[in-house]
């Protein structure tokens, strides 16, 4: 038992970060050195209700209360003490989506999450109106689609926010949002660090004939930067988090953020010319830019860091699911032979053997599309492996082709940034399941985007740690450092992790692979059309 951790908790100097992920709510407690000292979690799943993905209000509060209770129990078990006062609290959650409330704080329709793709007409019309790529999952797309659908509730909207914004509002009384999460509601002007005024005016003009009793800024949360005052935990808020009644009100709460922003913080990737890649079930890359791109691209979303720098985001629906399914097939074969199974060993052997394959995978191609992939224009997907008789079909090339496929779509999006927009990047940090086998996922990703890739031991701590660090930045930044400097100096201490540089032959091989991949997309389209 750490006496330092116990005394930190008892002195009220620990900081709490809570993140609502798609399948898990996680709480993390950090000390004054920004190191995790206790954790709690709660598993949950979204529900498909009337054709839309949602989580009920009851599930949200039941989830966070169970998560906090799990954290309390772990603190009691590890340190034989209880949490009563904290230095700060931070709330993070999956971005985008649609939570609309009336003036009685009642939700008007079930929470519509980022997974919903029923907003195609709205997103297309707004992208044209704003001359800016507006993704399907953004809050403004959901709002305008509800207007196009003539949904009755729209006229009664008093407040529109994200999941993180909702929790923060309920525990502090403040209708605010961190700039990173806000950038997934409506585009942000990099100069004013606020919603884009021209787009606000265009939207108000567009919907004026409907005669609603609100203008857009009336119903959106106020935008805040990292480190700004976002309010304090109320007495009611304390009871809603901790049903045991031990947690005291009055604790500062940092601006609520989205999972993309907390991922940037957790990987020390908020400085211009840095970026991070998250690669698990889905994947996305975030590259911090000096300025906006020269024009909008349908496959690149523009968001911001928690301190307001522009970020180019390439989001891919598919990453390791198909790869994992093939590894599962090899596990079955091993079981059939009566050989004891160690999944870490299977992954390690197969991944490392892939590096013995041809740099272009010997002509083999894999499409990992469990679901549709907007970047390549497919609304549905079919996992597919393609080869011709003359290709070099062996285990190393087979595995390499599936590793390439896991980041292939990510490469297509990032090629625009690096080749067409000439974006410069000094360091990209990788995190997620693809990088669990040391060195392999790193080398594949380095080849894909022709950039050095770092992996840090702390990257696995995730967004709950990231939002706890933003809480730390709020209350412990005594020297008024920028967020990037605070992370460099007070959190990471110059640790850039283990860096892998791209090998020229890998880069050339991946470029050949991706040319074949693009050419053969018609085969994937045919599979979607004919294989039901």
From TrEMBL:
Pfam families: FGGY_C (PF02782), FGGY_N (PF00370). It comes from the Bacteria. GO terms for molecular function: kinase activity. Residues 15-260 form the Carbohydrate kinase FGGY N-terminal domain. Keywords: Kinase, Transferase. Residues 276-473 form the Carbohydrate kinase FGGY C-terminal domain. PANTHER family: SUGAR KINASE (PTHR43095), XYLULOSE KINASE (PTHR43095:SF5). Belongs to the FGGY kinase family. This is FGGY-family carbohydrate kinase. It comes from Xylanibacter muris. The lineage of its organism: Bacteria, Pseudomonadati, Bacteroidota, Bacteroidia, Bacteroidales.
């Amino acid at each position: 038992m750490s006496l330092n951790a116990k005394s930190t908790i008892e002195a009220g100097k620990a900081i709490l970060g809570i993140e609502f992920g798609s399948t898990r709510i996680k709480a993390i407690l950090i000390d004054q050195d920004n190191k995790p000292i206790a954790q709690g979690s709660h598993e949950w799943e979204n529900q498909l209700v009337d054709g839309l993905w949602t989580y009920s209000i009851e599930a949200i509060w039941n989830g966070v209360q169970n998560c906090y209770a799990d954290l309390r129990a772990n603190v009691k078990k590890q340190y034989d003490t209880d949490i009563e006062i904290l230095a700060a609290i931070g709330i993070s959650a999956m971005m985008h989506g649609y939570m609309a409330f009336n003036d009685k704080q009642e939700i008007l329709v079930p929470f519509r999450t980022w997974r919903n793709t029923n907003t195609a007409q709205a997103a297309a019309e707004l992208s044209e109106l704003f001359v800016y790529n507006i993704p399907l999952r953004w809050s403004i797309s959901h709002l305008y689609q509800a207007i196009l659908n003539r949904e009755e509730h729209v006229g009664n909207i008093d407040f529109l926010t994200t999941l993180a914004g909702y929790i923060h509002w309920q525990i502090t009384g403040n209708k605010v949002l961190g700039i990173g999460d806000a950038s997934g509601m409506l585009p942000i002007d990099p100069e004013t660090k606020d919603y884009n005024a021209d787009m606000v005016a265009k939207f108000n003009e567009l919907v004026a004939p409907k005669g609603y009793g609100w203008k857009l800024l009336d119903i959106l949360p106020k935008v805040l930067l990292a480190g700004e005052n976002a309010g304090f935990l109320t007495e009611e808020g304390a009871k809603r988090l901790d049903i045991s009644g031990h947690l005291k009100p009055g604790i500062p709460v940092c601006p609520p953020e989205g999972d993309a922003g907390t991922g940037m913080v957790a990987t020390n990737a908020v400085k211009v010319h840095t970026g991070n890649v998250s690669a698990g079930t889905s994947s996305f890359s975030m590259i911090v830019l000096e300025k906006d791109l020269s024009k909008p691209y349908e496959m690149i979303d523009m968001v911001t860091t928690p301190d307001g720098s522009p970020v180019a985001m390439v989001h891919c629906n598919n990453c390791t699911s198909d790869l994992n399914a093939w590894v599962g097939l090899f596990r079955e074969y091993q079981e059939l032979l009566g050989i004891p199974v160690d999944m870490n060993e299977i992954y390690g052997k197969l991944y490392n053997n892939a590096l013995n394959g041809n740099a272009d995978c010997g002509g083999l191609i894999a499409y990992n599309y469990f679901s549709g992939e907007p970047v390549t224009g497919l609304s549905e997907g079919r996992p597919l492996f393609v080869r011709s008789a003359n290709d070099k079909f062996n285990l190393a090339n087979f595995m390499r082709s599936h590793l390439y496929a896991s980041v292939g779509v990510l490469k297509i999006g990032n090629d625009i940034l690096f080749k067409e927009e000439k974006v410069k990047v000094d360091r990209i940090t990788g995190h997620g399941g693809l990088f669990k086998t040391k060195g392999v996922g790193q080398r594949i990703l380095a080849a894909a985007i022709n950039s050095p890739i770092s992996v840090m031991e702390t990257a696995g701590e995730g967004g709950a740690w990231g939002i706890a660090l933003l809480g730390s930045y709020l209350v412990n930044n005594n020297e008024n450092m920028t967020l990037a400097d605070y992370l460099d100096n007070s959190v990471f201490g110059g640790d850039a992790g283990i860096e892998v540089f791209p090998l020229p032959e890998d880069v050339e091989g991946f470029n050949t692979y991706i040319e074949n991949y693009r050419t053969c997309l018609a085969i994937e389209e045919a599979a979607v059309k004919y294989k039901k």
